[in-house]
Amino acid sequence: MQQVNTERTRIGIVGAGDIARKVNLPHLRAIPGVQLVAVCNARPESARQVAGEFGIPHVVDHWTSMVDRDDVDAIWIGTPPVMHAPIAIAALQQGKHVFCQARMAMDLAEARSMLAAARQHPELVTMLSAPPMGMKAGKLMRQLLNDGYVGEPYHFRLVADSDMFADPDAPAHWRQRRELVGMNVLTVGIYGEILQRWFGSPVRLHARSKVYVPDRDGYAVQVPDVVQVTGEWGDGVLGVLEWSGVSLFAPDSTLTLYGRDGTLEYNFTRDQVRGARRGDDEFRTFELPADLETPWTVEHDFVTAVRAGGRPEPSFETGVAYMEFTEAVHRSALTGIEILLPLP
What we know:
Layout: E1 9-14, H1 18-29, E2 34-40, H2 44-54, E3 58-59, H3 63-67, E4 74-77, H4 84-93, E5 97-100, H5 108-119, E6 126-128, H6 138-146, E7 153-161, H7 178-181, H8 188-199, E8 202-210, E9 215-216, E10 219-220, E11 226-233, E12 237-244, E13 254-259, E14 262-267, E15 272-277, E16 284-285, H9 298-308, H10 316-335, E17 339-340
Parallel strand pairs: 1-2, 1-4, 2-3, 4-5, 5-6, 7-12
Antiparallel strand pairs: 7-13, 8-11, 8-17, 9-10, 11-12, 13-14, 14-15, 15-16
Helix pairs in contact: 4-5, 5-10, 8-10
């Protein structure tokens, strides 16, 4: 059995929302040697509640005080994207390792500034939160593609619809507030990251979007409810993509890839891969070998990298790539024109 490194790692939490409280903090606390030193939330009473729940000794009123602390080795950023760049850059300048919740930043310019700061401090570990979608069986999908299961890939169709914003009478969710999320829309960036892994970088795309509920409890919504994209990836693979937050009774989120010799389907809702090749009568469901199954272990990956000096994924470079895709979608939907990538 591999020996566990129990070296002390002191972490300050900036932004302990639902994901942090339900997932990140319990996982971090379970890692030997990790000390949750301090927590900072937008509302001090919320920070005090989190501190009591997880036994965190210090509550900090403002994130600037957190990055200045001498008893913190790493900053864990769990805020909305609006605060990611300023906190990450300041933390790096103060000699702190940085973990940042996805999506990376408000826009491509901010993401690039974060990457530039990370490159100025190569001795520090930087990592973004990995998307859970497509992770569990992602290596199996990649292996099937590498083995030529579909032959030459021709085109794919991605459908990622949900009903999370389908109630027209609900107030605006923070993810629908442009001032908090910037150019991030629905799960566009998440799937952009997955597509990058499987098909390489996009080279051109055209997008359109629409807000179907423009007024939510007096708030003027600008973040789209639906986004549709057509594009080209890597070596000529075409894609048709749809995201929706207002689709009642939506089907599972799936990507279907069609090639010269066969078809592959990844069901993101079930983490299930199916396929059929020329001559088959029907789809088969692939068993997921244990050695190809990838668990979601971002907390362990980050702490291990801090202790061993590694370069965990998703990196800030990966984040810049998916933010470029996200920004291209935004620009195309705004202007109605096709966008060529990479962006200047």
